[in-house]
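debug: dumping io for the single-chain case to check the tokenizer round-trip. Nothing else runs in this session.
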Amino acid sequence: MKGTQAAEPDVRPSDAFAALYDEHFPRIYQYIASRLGRDVADDITADTFLIALRKQDRFDAERGAVRPWLFGIATKLVAQHRRQEMRRYRALAKLGPEEVAESHENQVINWVRAESLQRGLAQALGALSRGERDVLLLSAVSELSNEEVAQALGIAYGTVGSRLSRARRKVRSVMREDDHG
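debug: decoded output
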């Protein structure tokens, strides 16, 4: 139909959903901001909760808690912005600390570690596979348990442990090379 747009469904948050939003927004926002920067975190966090609101009737509490479900939605949205994330890590890895201005990228890296470790950390995160990076950041930044990470990503509990172990080993290796290089 030319000239007509599909109407947005009438989505009104319930009091219970508003309480859920109030409880989980800060951690979801922090996780997304650490992955993509504060410039897009507002939009992606809002999208996370909009998707959750629209799909709340499909949420099954018997399959797990709501917190990992929300982080799973957020992680999928982060994946849609992965190219931008990878370009940022690669660019930061090429820059020295004196070259990085007070940008949102610098603030994120400073939050993770001291300025002197920016290059190594960016290289290490950029070298991880998508799965390893998702597991590591959900665990380290969002402080999800291995069980919650498994639920958020829809993977086996054992897979979380092995990816987390590999990711930590790779990050330590790159960081040691940076210290000696």
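debug: round-trip ok. The first helix runs from residue 15 to 36.
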